[in-house]
DNA sequence: AATATTTCCGTACACTGTACGAGAATAGTC
DNA sequence: GACTATTCTCGTACAGTGTACGGAAATATT
């Protein structure tokens, strides 16, 4: 096993790492390089493109060599999540206005997920507590310091915030993906119009008839995030 | 092709259906039965257990026979989503208090997702507008009637609400799944304690030291949902 | 009876994650 | 320098995936 070890019964041993003994062949690759290649692949071609063979090819390794750096694919996905979490600034100063700070955190998370559109889907199934995620959590907890929420409540708030952002951006991405294929979008519009015209969906018909000005996803996100955070009890 | 047709360039043709000509061999199965079998499988063993072979076996068909009822697996998944959406009551009377009605809708969605734990994950990638989903959307729009939001804004609210619930329940499920494997949970607790003890995570250490009383997921959900909805502009 | 149409499904193929184990490279010991 | 223990590399192999293809069976129309 390579220096930053991982396998074993204990799932969190992944992040602790074990020292190399010195003995044995030197590793030709690195966990970071492999993870970065996997992330690049997911960014460019989606999560489905991340296959062990593709990642290995990208990094110049044999397929089975990857298993010296991560015990299985699931672990590689967790590494990917924590890897991109490293893009979140974890040490910028806080304003002291915890609501503003929390909103900024939400916007940072959204930006990250837009940069890595596979992230919302990856987060729905996984809970990752790697070093980068923890550093960011630490920052969020610091932001919540002025609130007098107890420990569990603070952790809840962070969890919920992340869940909310993932849910929102997931939808946002699905929406924009549909919009990028103009044929699809038109077909959907036609379908909705047909449904609205069937007489059984008067509210939908009304909603489609009175569209209002189009909303930018950014504005919508901000509005919902603000409502969510402004409504939080200070404990 | 079987009566409720689906294939084609137009994705929404799925839901429209085409009449059988009468000519040709009679279908031995039905789209509904196949979908129900797939849903039962996902409920019992998770989304990964839903393979074309397993579904076919469950329903007593040859594998390739499924392709007469759904052009591909992605379509089967969309059918599954709309199938369970049919469990949402779409015609119960509304109270007229749109905030209360909207909260009730959120709770219904959460209950549905808890009954079908694969649903949040399935919704992250997919946007489904089958008849059942549309019926429920119609109801949500009716609930929003007293607000004077324009059509686009109403649709946004529903989208966001669904995204929020999916995000929350996704986390809720991950949490409870971790709690069900006691070894895992203990290992994670030990890991977090170790991280908290490293001196670089003082806020985390403090949060773990002052746990407060445990929060039920139900109560947390209600609190966040209330905040979200109470904060909505009436337009 | 012939024909057109539709469904049923066995076979086959490319692709997936990964178990196994043989070989290569390194460090420590004599 | 030879030997040994250890560690990493990766070719091969296998079970499992979605689904393309095409022949056989069943039905309604002619």
Describe the structure.
The structure is a homodimer of 235-residue chains. Chain A has 235 residues and is mostly helical. The first copy, chain A, has two domains: 13-85, Arc Repressor Mutant, subunit A (Orthogonal Bundle), CATH 1.10.10.60; 98-230, Tetracycline Repressor, domain 2 (Orthogonal Bundle). Chain A has eleven helices and no strands. Chain A has helices spanning 13-16, 31-45, 52-59, 73-85, 98-115, 119-125, 131-143, 151-180, 182-196, 202-209, 217-230. In chain A, helix 6 crosses helix 8 (151-180). The radius of gyration of chain A is 22 Å and the shape is flat. The termini of chain A are far apart. Mean pLDDT of chain A is 89; it is low at 5-9. At the A-B interface, helix 6, helix 7, helix 8, helix 9 and helix 10 of A face helix 6, helix 7, helix 8, helix 9 and helix 10 of B. The structure holds a DNA duplex (30 and 30 nucleotides).
Oligomeric state of the chains? homodimer
The total beta strand count of chain A reads 0
For the largest interface in this structure, which chains are involved and how many residues does each contribute?
A: A-B, 76 and 76 residues
Overall spatial form of chain A? flat
Question: Could you say how many structural domains of chain A there are in total?
Answer: 2
CATH superfamily of the largest domain in chain A: Tetracycline Repressor, domain 2
What is the element string of chain A, with H for helices and E for strands? HHHHHHHHHHH
The SS-based structural class of chain A is: mainly alpha
Q: Which CATH class of the largest domain in chain A?
A: Mainly Alpha
